[in-house]
């Protein structure tokens, strides 16, 4: 496991180096102003992958398989007239993958921490997930607590009130949601993005720091500008 963790860390370092040294290689074409990195964390079987699928595909994935390692999804949203691309890493909840998935916490702007309202054990483990998040992300990372499976009210084991109290005590945003019906799924992802954007506007995030979890993309150049630049480059070419 230590060898796997070492390989993953080296891979992240190479990606960060490439993004820092060659930002223009990934800048065009694009139709967004920012990239926000999210992670989804929580025990196995709480519905993390189903929440991601509901948000990105607008439909429920029945018989959702357990994540092996990590999965990835993206979606472009809009906050205050700014286009934001969310890069969402869905991490495995099994303890045997914990050492590997911890490497994905680095540079996360938002963390969606999920429990299952019908399984108290998943709620009881939140403190451990929160400790990892606080230790492995930057102080400005927005943490959103999601109580999934709100459609299963008849088998509820965790009350809304106690989860809300836990969230308030730890400075977390909170909603109950249902990956099956879609209730509050959109809101959880979007409210996290709005809070991150607010932190940017208030100067709480250093966009030049890779650990911020945010990449800024300036407005896309116009076709006229691109054409002029191409012509200029051609005129200067000696080949």
UniProtKB/TrEMBL annotation:
Residues 210-230 have a biased composition (Polar residues). It is a lipid-anchor. One of its GO terms (cellular component) is early endosome membrane. The keyword Acetylation applies. The keyword Acetylation applies. It catalyses: GTP + H2O = GDP + phosphate + H(+). Belongs to the small GTPase superfamily. Rab family. This is Ras-related protein Rab-14. It comes from Drosophila yakuba (Fruit fly). The gene is Dyak\GE19031.
């Amino acid at each position: 496991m230590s060898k796997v963790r070492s390989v993953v860390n080296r891979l992240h370092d190479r990606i960060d180096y490439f993004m820092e040294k060659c930002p223009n290689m990934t800048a065009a074409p694009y139709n967004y102003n920012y990239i926000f990195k999210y992670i989804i964390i929580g025990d196995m079987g709480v519905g993390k992958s189903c929440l991601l699928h509901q948000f990105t595909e607008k439909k429920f994935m029945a018989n959702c398989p357990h994540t092996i390692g990590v999965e990835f999804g993206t979606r472009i949203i809009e906050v205050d007239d700014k286009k934001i691309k969310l890069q969402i890493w869905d991490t495995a909840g099994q303890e045997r993958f914990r050492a590997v998935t911890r490497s994905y916490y680095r540079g996360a702007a938002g963390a969606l921490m999920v429990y299952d309202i019908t399984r108290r054990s998943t709620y009881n483990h939140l403190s451990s997930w929160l400790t990892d998040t606080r230790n492995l992300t930057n102080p400005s990372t927005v943490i959103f607590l999601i109580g999934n499976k709100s459609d299963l009210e008849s088998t509820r084991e965790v009350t809304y009130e106690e989860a809300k109290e836990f969230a308030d005590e730890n400075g977390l945003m909170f909603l109950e949601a249902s990956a099956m019906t879609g209730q509050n799924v959109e809101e959880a992802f979007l409210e996290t993005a709005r809070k991150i954007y607010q932190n940017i506007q208030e100067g709480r995030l250093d966009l030049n720091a890779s650990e911020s979890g945010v990449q800024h993309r300036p407005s896309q150049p116009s076709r006229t500008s691109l054409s002029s630049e191409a012509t200029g480059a051609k005129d200067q070419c000696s080949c």
